Amino acid sequence: MSSAAPLYLIAVIRPRPEMAAEAEVHLRRLMAGKLSEPGCVSMELVVSDEDPDTWIMLEKFRSRADWDEHMRSSHVTAGNAALAGLLRAPTELQFFTQK
Q: In 3D, which of 20, 34, 30, 12 has the Cα closest to residue 89?
């Protein structure tokens, strides 16, 4: 994969049901910070009607390098630390490039 190719990411997020509202607050804060980064093209938090306890974050970055930089940012490291206790499983990341 070229570092200049757009990077698509699906993050599967499984909040604890009793902590879902708090988890969403943290995710919305993370999203606000991410969307202000120059390398972030888009980001959406979606949920399936069939499985409302599993959330999907759809993200697009200009490149893998932009995503790597994003992951090192202070708002992401702090946000991920805050989310850790609110999730019932670690977030699953799936990476894609354009075909």
A: 12
Contact 75, 69 (CB under 8 A): no
DSSP 26-90: HHHHHHHHHHTSTTEEEEEEEE-SS-TTSEEEEEEES-HHHHHHHHHSHHHHHHHHHHHTTBSSP
DSSP state of 91: P
Question: Is the confidence at residue 32, as pLDDT, over 90?
Answer: no
Q: Indicate whether 48 pLDDT > 80.
A: yes
pTM: 0.88
Integer-rounded Cα Rg, in Å, for the chain is: 13
